[in-house]
Amino acid sequence: MLLRQLEPRTARTTAEVIKFALWPLAVMTVLNRVFIKAVNGFITDDYKPVYNASLAFLNGRPVYTANFDSVDPHYLYPPGGTLLIAPLALIDPEKSRWCFILLNAAAILLAWYLLLRLFKYTLKSVAAPALLLAMFMSETVINTLVFTNVNGCILLAELLFLHLLLARRDLWAGAILGLSITVKPTLAPLVLVAAARGQWKVFITAIGVPVALTAIAWPLLNDPGQFFSRTLPYILETRDYFNSAIAGNAAYYGLPDALTWGIRLTMAALVAISLWILYRYYRDDELFFVTTSSGVLLTAEFLLTGLGQMYYSMMLFPFLMSVVLRNSVLRNWPAWLAIFGFMSYDKWLSDRWQSFGRNLEYLRITFGWGLLLLVVFCVLGDRYLAARREGRLPFGIDPAWMKNAPDSRDGAEEAAVAADQAEFPGSPSSPNGTAPAEEKRISVEQ
Questions:
Q1: Rounded distance between C-alpha atoms, residue 152 and residue 141, angstroms
Q2: For residue 294, is pLDDT > 90?
Q3: What's the predicted TM-score (pTM) here?
């Protein structure tokens, strides 16, 4: 009897079957990551130095006192960021950490919803549980929660910024970006996306908010100058541990400086060419341009600057989601091999082949970011060269077949209505408020 009640009352499509199968998997995965893995914690604890610094700030003690000779996590937030996170220390450390875990989990969930809406998907689509499951299976979400880092809030800021940027709400977009930069400058390269679109007002608040918060925090801190004289130089150094940037792995493996700079400059040139093609030929395709160019800029930041850590890859979710667009540069297997390198939670350390396993584990993130940038360059370059050969450059570089390729923006409203009709047969979907199947049954009975 119970099993019969659980059976669907109407035939379901393959997409609906997959959707209903994915939802319990996604929900249970989220609960496991938030309430089990995150609460359990790990030897790496990004939250402890943040809490201690907040407590020192509230009690008028020096904040920037980290011992940079150790490899333990250090407190690196600037004065404005210290002001914003100070309320964390108003309660005891354990409950404060739990609250921060919940805050980041809530931010990630809200970012998930905004990401769906960015690409015109609803909660009733199969994309909703699939994306939720993929996000909470990734290394970047798991370790952000387990290490209790602020990256979940930074991801939410990125999604809010993209939505506001596309809506031409420039001052609000800049304010959100400015708040995130005040705590952590990860999203700073995104001002270039606004500049490429001519949305110069973004700069007013993107710069003004951090400056204002720093000015407010300065007289309240015991040692604000220490951030610029002591902490900032450390941030700008290239360290050879917990660093997947080219410079970090080069320092770890002892590569010559000339070779390191050669690799970095070569990759920078490929990035510049990719961004030029995107600017020249895709600027009018707003969603594709904004998500792809931001993804290229952030990946380049992680790979080419002095510090890139694996869980920074969370900021690439909007770029990865662009695979549902018809002209996406990610519709090929090398792109997803690259994504596996920096998104997978799998560990490649081997007891049997220790040296090989260690190298594979340490380098897969660097190779993944690098391969992703190489794929973008090759796809865009191939489209450009083909269009030039065929004399199509004045009309864009997308081949003719791409016009009919599937795209999440095609028929989004019709798809949502169809989903409503399938799940709620009595919903007002026809002139008399009766679903088509129900309408047919009534007419036969009459």
A1: 8
A2: yes
A3: 0.90
